[in-house]
Write a structure and sequence with these properties.
The two termini are 41 Å apart. The protein has 1433 residues and is mainly beta. It is 5% helix and 32% strand.
Length: 1433
């Protein structure tokens, strides 16, 4: 039986892992059943090494002494697959692989083969740069070993792809086909003159089934080469398997010659590059081409497999093409349905169709085609479990999962109509996206029936084949369980009217949910039904209904939504919505998120009607008064505060909404005019007390479109309840557009010259009441804002009154912020601002500028200054607007506000925040300098090159043993951040509190400060700091080294020639090959300086004997700029660099140039070699190795660290003359007192493992440790020393005892380490005792249904305790041969035979005893009613 064979395999696997371990064999099971096959497999594994060294290879077939079909190495590299088109090279190179012997290819575990000449591969595929393939077809079995030429792709040359398949040779390989339908290859190193060549692989052409009888039918006439283009992309299809092509039911095959552009339903039609095969050819692989620029095979897509079948047809294994829009091409070659009478009601007999991609409101998931579906019978539609129906309107293209959307022509039937026939139409579209519905397709009609229970059923049929990828579109059913006329949200947003201008509002930002009724200043209004101009309705593309509104008797209907574009009133088709007419002459709409931005639903001012006669007159009067109030100010006396019976400071609602934060641009789409405000409110932001902003806030902040802010300061406690005006930021649409253009295009001048008058042309909303409360907070009587304001929201800012920022701040001494310093394009957005800051200038007090600062000052391009005077001490914490100069107005740029406080001692503190502009920085005013009480720093001379002499300090401790670890990735020069990684910029070592000595790391590896110049903005800050001299030796002790910095001028040149000095530091070289540094605060005159690090140059091995060979002649300086690598296409950042490299030039030594290389020789960014340094290889001989095929040899010194096999969490080093593995310094040392011991107990055995690196650091090499029996040593497994004992000939001195309740196995790890190295002998002894404890007594319950082998107790005890299994099995006979199966009815006095077995204990030492056994009527062993069978025996 299969189950028995599987069990046997597991048992055999266990035996092969531990041949000494005894296994309990299952009854009636032969252990030897799979022995022969498994032994054979083990022998095959042992004969398949994964890596050998290669000396050379011959091109003439050799007769090896073995069959390469049985002795080969496996190569399974997914990146070699031609079907995975990376479209850029991945850094692999087969010239650096040491090929030797024969290889069998796989791709993700599937048998593969090298690509053949029939399909030339593009360059930059197959994981490298140059693609290699076989020059002829593969051999047959009778051919034996053959030699095949290897060809390579020519490289991309100045934008042309047409010379790639010129069949340039690149050596040869030997090939053989093997029994079992696979190939083996004697691969050799490719020609080194080719840039990064790699052998290309494809899944083997040999199949385990005949695709002529296992295919999918593909009848898509639009693929014919006489059809026009539709932009269809075959990459959207989920290709899987083999396909047979049809044309209206007739056989057709792929085109074999040139196909014009814009045909076959796509733009780039794909055709076979070569003839179709014959039947006797079997499965072949063919290249696929596409035309471009008069070259019929300009583009070469992924090859496909083809087979000719008996019956004069072909099958194709289609795969996803490499680009869009591409599609496979083929060569060139009804009456309305009448309802059928059915014997059963289709409302009761249907299939369910619930496919979310059919949703007419979704544009996701393409590639579906209903002509491929085998439709049969009637169908009921669902969408995510909700009843659905076919759409009744024209649907936009690219929805409903396919290319052409099918919809019902006409409304659905009523119950009394029975089965009806409806025409089906499909959306047609050209490349201009217009006339989608007027030039519609006509498909085959279907039958429909309305069913009791408010749903429909459809007799779906295969759509018309001439329609490109048609799919039936569905929408959620119009039948509702509630009446939306009485369940809606009121939407009174007058800016939606079609006579209002555009503001760039986007309805995609709204969280639409449910039904909405439209108002215009309290009056009824409805959506337009006709053309709406662009830039109206508060947006750019105003949405209208495409069709009339329904009547009350129509119920819920679905309507298409259109937007004007290109002179076509319905150019854009957005997601449809549902509409209902309600009694009372109004409508409700189920709004959804539109398809694009900037789109918003419009209202039609010509449809305004009063809600009622009495309400109309009041509404008109109120709105006239409000409009006058907004435009001209109050028309009557201000409101008088109301007297309240209770104190609002004690009776308020909490409002904590993070999107209201004035300092955040996230979460739009909110509107406080739709909120039902009632009473008083206290504001919070993420749990912190907050207040309404007192300044003009940037637009698109605070969650809506118009931020609302308080006009005037908040009241004091003694003021009581006061009334404050509320204003809103005003901005027109074009400035909105420029704002986003800046964010996405970074065009500063284009944006800033149009970003004006946000606060001058402000809105005026309704006033509110405010009160200051004891406890330092405010309460507000919020009201609905003025409806004419577009999406207004109250803005909040957080404040705190607990810690005094005058004594809780960060010192910021950055003189480059002064308004007399030039610009450096520093961005304060890159800083991680957090808290309050006090400003200094070379140790003296300074404060922010209060007046306009010219651009390109303060170390930045855009300058930021406080708009208003600094506060007095008695003012406490105040908030100030921050302005920026755009050269058209000093405060035309309004940045996010900051908080400021005046402190005793004549200084100020600022709560600086990250601003939303790049290249903008806070400015300080040099005219405000005042000395501090105790100057910490003296201003240095402007020349900066000041000579300093520092005498090393004598320390009472060794800094090599007393240091702080500094592991900051962003300091490393290999992380060339520049502007590309905003998360790793903005650092500044002048604000770090340096104290003592530091050891540097980079991602856990030892690092050191750079000894040479490095570019600015490359080590996490702006100014890069590097060591002016080399590092010291161990014998030098503590030395002082100058620190230099990169410096740039306006043309970004001479960074290293015009360097500047910083403060010197002290350095010491330590044993174990690392350095420690006494880092100090750099010179504050340097803009954002940071110490730069590189990986340590101290190695635990000699790279002269541990390197990779890099033989790329194209890197030489004698190569001109026309070299075939391609200008601008080669970039060494794509190489997988790892370790050390030796440079060769066609087998000769070469080195990197030491002087400037002409720009025309550079290939973007690459490593260049100097052609003038070529010398022959003349390495010393390698002892003990000879090879007649090699002309050079090398002497290799054995590296003691190579024998240690340290893991990535360890590093190799020497201690007391012994090499071993140390723990990485940055890694934690868990349970270091017990060497990170881990214990496992199971089945009378125990395992204890210890950390190898912790043992070695404690002075215990692995070879000195053993268990109680000295012959039982540990084994190394992934950096851990593992000890094991059991009762099967591996007792290892284990002692077994029992204490009445538990069994206890005890052992210990022991060892003595002798570190004698002179007159003093140092010995260390180690003894670690451990034990495994097993509980003696267990109680278990057997299932009452007598299910054999199911009543198992499996208990895992705490760490250090073991587990075992107890099984209780019922049998029918005394021989215990017939177990009960399933549920059994047991008669009174019927005898049952019970077997109780224990597994997991040693039966030679431990016996099983049943002392009690009882029966209960329910499955509860503690049940009161029981029948005892065995009592304490």
């Amino acid at each position: 039986p299969t189950s028995n064979q599987n069990s046997t395999t597991k048992s055999w696997s266990s035996l092969t892992k531990n041949p000494n371990k005894k296994v309990n064999k299952p009854r009636n099971l032969s252990v030897a059943i799979n022995t022969e096959s498994m032994v054979t497999e083990l022998i095959n594994c042992s004969n398949n090494p994964t890596h050998r060294n290669l000396s050379s290879s011959a091109t003439t077939p050799t007769n090896p002494s073995f069959d390469p079909c049985t002795k080969y190495s496996v190569v399974d590299d997914d990146w070699r697959d031609t079907g995975i088109n990376y479209n850029y090279y991945r850094g692999h190179d087969d010239t650096v692989v040491e090929w030797k012997g024969w290889y069998r290819l796989y791709i993700e575990g599937k048998s593969a083969q090298i690509a053949e000449t029939a399909w030339c591969e593009r360059y930059r595929t197959c994981g490298g740069y140059t693609a290699l393939w076989l020059g002829r077809s593969h051999p047959r079995l009778e051919d034996g070993i053959v030699t095949r030429e290897i060809y390579k792709s020519a490289q991309y040359y100045y934008g042309y792809y047409d010379t790639q398949c010129s069949f340039t040779r690149s050596g040869s390989v030997q090939v053989k086909i093997c029994p079992g339908d696979y190939y083996v290859y004697k691969l050799v190193k490719p020609d080194v003159s080719s840039p990064m060549p790699t052998y290309c692989a494809v899944v083997s052409n040999i199949l385990s089934f005949d695709p002529c009888h296992n295919y999918l039918s593909l009848d898509q006439p639009w693929r014919a080469n006489n059809e026009t283009g539709l932009g269809i992309c075959d990459s959207d299809f989920s290709w899987n398997g083999w396909y047979r092509l049809f044309y209206y039911g007739m056989n057709i095959r792929m085109a074999e010659s040139y196909v014009d552009l814009n045909g076959c339903g796509t733009y780039y039609g794909l055709w076979l590059n070569g003839p179709h095969p014959e039947v006797e050819d079997g499965v072949v692989t063919r290249q696929v081409c596409a035309n471009e620029a008069s070259n019929s095979c300009y583009y070469t897509s992924t090859p496909i497999r083809v087979k000719a079948c008996r019956g004069s047809y072909y099958v194709y294994e289609f795969v996803s093409p490499v680009w869009c829009p591409m599609a496979y091409c083929t060569g060139p070659v009804s009456t309305a349905a009448t309802p059928t009478s059915y014997s059963s009601d289709p409302c009761n007999k249907y299939s369910v169709l619930d496919e979310d991609w059919r949703n007419a409101r979704s544009a996701s998931r393409r590639g579906h085609d209903d002509t491929l579906v085998e439709w049969s019978g009637w169908y009921r539609l669902y969408l995510q479990g909700k009843s659905a129906q076919i759409s009744e309107w024209c649907v936009s293209f690219t929805t409903c999962g396919g290319h052409t959307q099918l919809w019902l022509s006409g409304s659905h039937p009523q119950l009394e109509d029975g089965i009806v026939t409806r025409e089906i139409y499909g959306t047609n579209i050209d490349y201009n996206y217009d006339n989608q519905c007027s030039n519609r397709y006509r498909s085959r009609p279907i039958q429909v029936k309305a069913c009791p229970g408010h749903y429909y059923v459809y007799k779906l049929v295969k759509p018309e084949l001439s329609i490109p990828m048609p799919t039936y579109c569905t929408v959620v059913s119009n039948i509702l369980t509630f009446d939306p006329c009485h369940n809606y949200v009121s939407l009174d947003q007058p800016w939606r009217a079609n006579n209002e201008t555009g503001l760039g509002i986007c309805d995609r930002d709204f969280s639409w949910n449910g039904w909405y009724r439209l108002f215009y200043y309290g009056m009824n209004i409805r959506m337009p039904e006709s053309y709406v101009d662009v830039n109206r309705c508060g947006t750019y593309y105003g949405l209208r209904l495409n069709g009339p509104h329904p009547e009350v008797e129509d119920g819920v209907v679905t309507r298409q939504v259109c937007a004007n574009g290109g002179g076509n009133s319905c150019y854009f088709r957005s997601t449809p919505i549902r509409v209902k007419a309600c009694p009372g002459s109004y409508y409700v709409y189920e709004f959804v998120s539109p398809a694009w931005c900037h789109m918003a639903y419009c209202t039609d001012v010509s449809t305004i009607t009063p809600t009622s006669t009495s309400e109309f007159n009041i509404t008109i009067i109120i709105n006239i008064l409000l409009k006058c109030y907004i435009c001209y100010g109050p028309v009557s006396t201000p409101a008088t505060p109301t007297s309240y019976s209770s104190d609002p400071c004690n009776k308020y609602s909490v409002l904590d909404e993070d999107w209201r934060n004035a300092r955040s641009n996230r979460r739009r789409g909110h509107d406080d005019t739709v909120v039902e405000w009632s009473g008083w409110y206290r504001l919070y932001l993420q749990g912190k007390s907050a207040q309404i902003s007192e300044w003009c806030a940037s637009f698109t902040t605070c969650g809506g479109h118009t931020p609302l802010w308080l006009n005037g300061s908040h009241p004091q406690l003694e003021d009581g309840i006061v009334t404050r005006d509320v204003y809103g930021t005003n901005i027109n649409y074009y400035n909105y557009y420029y704002y986003y253009y800046y964010y996405y295009h970074d065009d500063d001048d284009y944006y800033y010259n149009n970003y004006h008058n946000r606060c001058n042309n402000r809105y005026r909303s309704r006033p509110i009441q405010v009160k200051a409360c004891p406890g330092h907070y405010y309460v507000y009587k919020l009201v609905k804002p003025e409806l004419s304001i577009p999406m207004p929201t109250y803005c909040t800012v957080a404040f705190d009154s607990v810690a005094d920022p005058c004594y809780n701040y960060v010192s910021l001494d950055q003189p480059w912020r002064a308004n007399n310093e030039s610009g450096l394009e520093i961005s304060d957005r890159d800083f991680s601002w957090n808290g309050w800051y006090r400003l200094f200038y070379y140790g003296m007090n300074i404060r922010m500028s209060e007046s306009c600062v010219p651009r390109f000052s303060c170390g930045a391009y855009f300058t930021m200054w406080v708009n208003g005077p600094h506060p007095e001490i008695e003012d406490g914490v105040v908030t100030r607007q921050v302005c920026g100069n755009d050269e058209t107005g000093c405060c035309n740029i309004r940045f996010d506000p900051i908080r400021v406080k005046a402190c005793p001692g004549s200084y100020y503190v600022y709560e600086l925040v990250s601003q939303f502009f790049y290249k903008a920085a806070y400015c300080t005013d040099v005219n405000t300098l005042t000395p501090t009480a105790a100057p910490a720093t003296t201003a240095t001379d402007a020349g900066f090159n000041i000579t300093r002499t520092t005498t090393p300090t004598k320390y009472s401790f060794d800094p090599c043993n007393n240091y702080t670890v500094l592991d900051d990735d962003w300091r490393n020069t290999s992380y060339n951040y520049w502007y590309w990684n905003p998360n790793s910029r903005g650092h500044d070592d002048t604000i770090v509190e340096w104290n003592g000595w530091y050891r540097l790391f980079f991602q856990g590896a030892d690092a050191q400060i750079l000894e040479g110049c490095v570019s600015y903005m490359q080590c996490g800050g702006y100014t890069s700091l590097w060591l002016g001299e080399s590092h010291p030796q161990i014998e030098d002790g503590i030395v002082t080294r100058e620190v230099y910095s990169s410096r740039i001028d306006e043309s970004y040149r001479y960074q290293c020639k015009n360097y500047r000095k910083s403060s010197p530091i002290q350095v010491k070289a330590c044993p174990e090959d690392y350095y420690v540094y006494k880092l100090v605060k750099p010179d504050v005159s340097l803009p954002m300086p940071t110490y730069c690090t590189v990986t340590s140059s101290k190695l635990s091995y000699d790279p002269c004997y541990n390197y990779e060979v890099l033989d790329d002649p194209q890197r030489a300086t004698n190569q001109t700029n026309w070299n075939p690598w391609g200008w601008g296409r080669w970039c060494d950042t794509n190489m997988n660099w790892n370790g050390w490299y030796r440079l060769l030039y066609e087998g000769n030594n070469i080195r990197m140039p030491e002087s400037c290389v002409s720009e025309v020789l550079l290939i973007l960014i690459c490593l260049i070699t100097d052609a003038d340094t070529i010398t022959p290889v003349n390495d010393p001989e390698i002892p003990g190795t000879t090879d007649s095929t090699t002309t050079t040899s090398t002497t290799v010194t054995v590296d003691p660290c190579t024998e240690q096999s340290c893991t990535e969490d360890e590093w190799c080093g020497e201690r007391d003359g012994v090499y071993g593995c140390f723990c990485n310094q940055s890694d934690p040392r868990p349970r270091d007192k017990s060497y990170d011991s881990r214990e496992t107990c199971e089945s009378s055995s125990g395992t204890m493992s210890l950390s190898r690196c912790q043992l070695f650091e404690a002075g215990f090499p692995t070879n000195v440790l053993h268990l109680s029996d000295p012959s039982c040593n540990g084994t190394l497994q992934n950096g851990r020393l593992v000890f094991h004992f059991d009762n099967d000939e591996h007792i290892c001195g284990t002692n077994l005892t029992a204490n009445g309740t538990h069994l206890i196995y005890e052992n210990s790890i022991q060892g003595v380490a002798d570190s004698a190295g002179g007159a003093i002998n140092r010995k260390k002894e180690l003894e670690l005792r451990f034990s495994c404890v097993y509980k003696l007594r267990q109680t278990l319950t057997m299932d009452t249904e007598f299910s054999p082998l199911q009543s198992i107790v499996h208990k895992t005890l705490p760490d250090g305790q073991g587990m075992y299994q107890v099984r209780m099995i019922p049998y029918q006979d005394a021989a215990f041969s017939q177990p009960y199966n399933g549920t059994e009815d047991i008669e009174v006095d019927q005898r049952i035979f019970m077997e109780v077995t224990v597994q997991g204990v040693d039966g030679r030492q431990i016996a099983t005893v049943i002392d009690s056994c009882w029966v209960t009527p329910v499955n509860d062993q503690n049940y009161a009613v029981r029948w005892d069978l065995i009592i304490n025996q």
